[in-house]
Amino acid sequence: MTRPINVTILGSGSWGTTVASLVSGNTPTLLWSRRAEVAEEITSRQTNSRYLGDHRLPASLAATADLADAVARADVLVVGVPTQGIRETLEAAAPHVRPWIPVLSLAKGLEQSTRMRPTDVISECLPGHPVGLLAGPNIAGEILEGKAAAAVIATPDPDIAASLQPLFSSVRFRVYTNTDVLGCELGGVLKNIVAIAAGMADGLGVGVNTSALVISRGLAEITRLGLAMGADPATFSGLTGLGDLIATCMSPRSRNRRVGEELAKGRTIEEAVEVLGQVAEGVKTARSVVELAHEHGVDVPICEEVDAVCNEGRTALQAYRGLVRLRPGSEHDAG
Ligand SMILES: NC(=O)C1=CN([C@@H]2O[C@H](COP(=O)(O)OP(=O)(O)OC[C@H]3O[C@@H](n4cnc5c(N)ncnc54)[C@H](OP(=O)(O)O)[C@@H]3O)[C@@H](O)[C@H]2O)C=CC1
Ligand SMILES: O=C(CO)COP(=O)(O)O
Question: Does the keyword NADP apply (predicted)?
Fold first, then answer.
């Protein structure tokens, strides 16, 4: 008889806990929380009230605050802490991680100090491990409610993605595979910034035509930067590109979109983040994306306006006026 595969998920926020719930239906799953009281609540009461209200988690899902023990048991490690916490978490975990187990990222940001993608940070902290990601249009609350969704596991080696697929799949959660890790990861990173713009636009009371403009020109920015960095263009019309962009720009539950809506009400970025009380990766990633785009000679006007709102005190209305003043060229050119 073969031994079951043990999966450990690091980070007990809304998405880490949701993914752990999904996986626990397929294989033994352990969720690590940096707070002992949260681990205790998940194990004994099957709730994570801070992030998921009174939603009942599977009884089979165990949680712990012991990082060394959590990673030492893992045959597959999933990193679900927000981007800015990945390095510190994995540096502490590294001595206890078993050799060469696959590691998947759930994060959708860039590390501020280095502009690195989460999978690159993971590879630096855990050298030699196969590293990939799980991404797609996956608003946690909908998945917890059992609404159908799909995601992509991207790893450079297609056999590894295929071997991980059944651990994350369910009747209502379809998991595809892709070898374009760069394209899949960039789609998730950049859509958060475009979603802040979409939230600002809707908060200002624009029409559906304007929202569609933000989404489609946002996709053009994502694709331009992705191509300049070497991603596969086909990836951006898939689940991790257009799919995640649509979900995040449209869902009233998206935290990035909600930040944009709060900004449109006249709140400062600090107030908008405070009101949210959860991570909105686009806020800390906008500046890094703009710098990366400039480094690659790529125009990203929507990301630039969002960066100016997040980091330079520009208002949502000023950002909107800045964008409509842009002179349009060919649809396939910048701007
Ligand atoms: N929620 C969603 O629908 C989806 C989210 N994602 C991505 O998943 C990642 C995680 O997001 P999500 O779970 O939603 O975030 P949340 O804001 O819901 O939760 C963040 C979790 O990470 C913990 N945390 C924060 N900083 C650190 C740190 N430095 N070290 C260890 N733990 C830390 C928090 O702990 P504490 O409570 O103690 O602060 C909390 O448990 C993000 O990159 C997000 O973009 C991807 C797809 C869907
Ligand atoms: O990544 C997500 C959906 O795929 C979640 O988006 P938010 O972080 O904006 O809630």
Answer: yes
